[in-house]
Predict the structure.
Amino acid sequence: MLIPDAEHDNIVLGERPLIVCDIDEVVLEFVTPFQAFLTANGHELRPTSFRLNGNVFSLDDGGETPADEVARLLEAFFTGQDAWQTPVLAAADSLARLSGEADIVFLTAMPPRHRAVRRRLLTLHGFDYPMIATEAAKGPAVLALHGSRTHPVVFIDDIFVNLQSVRQHVPGTLLLNLIANDIFRGLAPHPGEGVDIALDWPHAEELIRAHFAAAR
Ligand SMILES: [Mg+2]
């Protein structure tokens, strides 16, 4: 199986349900460690809205950090992500239980050049499922994976445009919005029609099990 515009592990799906799962803010903490990384590098994230740009300020003079500098800091963060990012509470246990009845594939929008360090970090924390790294839209990637199979599909992500992309390309998918960081979850707009909000991993697991049961 080959996903266009992506680098990925070998993926072989069984005749069973499929769970496609984002990584940042879903199985690895992103906002919380990125805040710590910014502070260590002379900046701070003051979350007043559900975005990074415009919310990062210099600790030196209090001025807003320009978007190109935020992009540079993000690149440095992903390069050294294994020193910063930690697993989201209960994610590994929930996925381990769900892997008994479904195939799990990670789909991350991170540039493929950071794939090796992320792969090692995931495996270290018990997330031993194949990963796809692509900056292309997520809907077509899920469609390429699932094709015309009739098994249930679940897609979990913190970003609404990704959830709506999958909604458009693979109708019938159970779409779950999960945001690990409490402050960002509080700031997030509604994820849009057809998307369920999971408050945490135990809640996500409950919604996924109900979806599988309904399909049997
Ligand atoms: Mg994410």
